[in-house]
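Exercise 7. Given the encoded structure of a 375-residue chain, write a plausible sequence.
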């Protein structure tokens, strides 16, 4: 999502790790006149099949990555530059394979973090692209493990969050010239994606195939440096897997996750189809005890205007969240499997909607909570 002035715009890759088509759709999501009032989408042609995009709302630049080593720099609706990352191998996930596997922009430093496959020190790694002046890649950081399907950056604590499908929650301290890796090898969990409420340091990971979320409080985390070049370790005595029975029905369990920046509100999705998703409210404080989601609700995404049913997208997970520059509401943004629609979900309104039982929104959802925008 690119949020500038009163406008919010989605940059939507038209591919996944399994392929599909090339190109990036630029879809106006919101203007001062409201959701879905921004005009028609624009297709940016790309040489390769693009899987991920991330924007810097301070500069207006967007970075997208392809399944090969291509990295695309975009301003507005113009592809301004094509670069090549330092990926040297594929990473393999339950949802496909990729050389460039994802991207997230750290607006505080104007750098894009790309997750890449590495033949040495991998199978995964991280590489920063400095976007200031003439864009330049930094030396790749070998992870010594597979990266997360969706990493996150904490710009406050200067950490990369990378929970992977082998139950390893890796944190990378990027506050110093030489990045320092810290591993937390859990006893269970197919950890699929990372998210964080950076205002409190509450870190999250989804657990594919289950209705669980892993929740940790980074303000309580204990970091032990490694020796002789080996990664260090981190632990959090208050961390836990919290179960959400209503999320068990998601397609492939909990997979995608995002927290709207500066809020305690987030969204959790399945993958590879399904129309059952969820919204969560995180605690407003941290520092003591065991963190837990305060409230949550599962809901059924309505059918888009020209389709019979909503079908959630493929890997890497087609979900993000942003805060409206107009209403200041926290919105989740979902994309369906055939790249035809995005669904904009008012997270707080969904949490406040009538429920059937304790944690399931009554179907059909009240009008106005979900807005569809065509690609």
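Solution.
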């Amino acid at each position: 999502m690119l949020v500038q002035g009163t406008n919010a715009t989605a940059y939507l890759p038209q591919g996944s790790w399994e392929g599909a088509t090339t190109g990036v759709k630029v879809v106006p999501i919101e203007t001062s006149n409201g959701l879905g009032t921004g005009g028609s989408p624009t297709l940016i042609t790309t040489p390769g099949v693009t899987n991920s995009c991330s924007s810097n709302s301070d500069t207006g630049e967007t970075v997208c990555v392809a399944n090969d080593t291509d990295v695309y720099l975009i301003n507005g609706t113009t592809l301004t530059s094509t670069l090549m990352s330092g990926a040297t191998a594929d990473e393999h996930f339950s949802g496909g394979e990729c050389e460039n596997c994802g991207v997230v922009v750290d607006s505080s430093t104007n750098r894009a973090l790309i997750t890449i496959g590495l033949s040495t020190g991998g199978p995964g790694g991280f590489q920063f692209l400095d976007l200031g002046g003439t864009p330049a890649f930094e030396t790749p950081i070998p992870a010594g493990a597979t990266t997360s399907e969706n990493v996150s950056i904490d710009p406050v604590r200067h950490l990369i969050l990378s929970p992977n499908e082998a139950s390893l929650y890796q944190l990378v301290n990027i506050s110093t010239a030489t990045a320092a890796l810290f591993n937390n090898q859990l006893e269970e969990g197919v950890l699929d994606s990372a998210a964080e409420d950076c205002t409190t340091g509450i870190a999250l990971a989804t657990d594919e195939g289950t209705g669980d979320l892993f929740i940790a409080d980074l303000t309580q985390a204990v970091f032990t440096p490694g020796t002789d070049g080996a990664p260090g370790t981190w632990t959090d005595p208050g961390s836990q897997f919290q179960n959400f029975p209503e999320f068990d029905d998601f397609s492939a369990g909990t997979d995608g996750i995002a927290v709207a920046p500066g809020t305690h509100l987030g969204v959790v999705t399945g993958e590879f189809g399904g129309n059952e998703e969820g919204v969560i409210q995180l605690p407003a404080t941290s520092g003591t005890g065991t963190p837990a989601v305060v409230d949550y609700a599962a809901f059924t995404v309505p059918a888009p205007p020209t389709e019979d049913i909503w079908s959630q997208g493929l890997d890497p997970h087609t979900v993000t969240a942003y805060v409206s520059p107009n209403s200041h509401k926290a919105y989740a943004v979902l994309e369906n499997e055939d790249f035809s629609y995005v669904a904009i979900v008012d997270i707080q309104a969904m949490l406040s909607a009538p429920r059937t039982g304790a944690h399931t929104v009554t179907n059909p959802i009240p009008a106005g909570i979900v807005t569809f925008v065509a690609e």
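Remark. The chain is about 0% helix and 50% strand. Students should compare their own answers with the one above.
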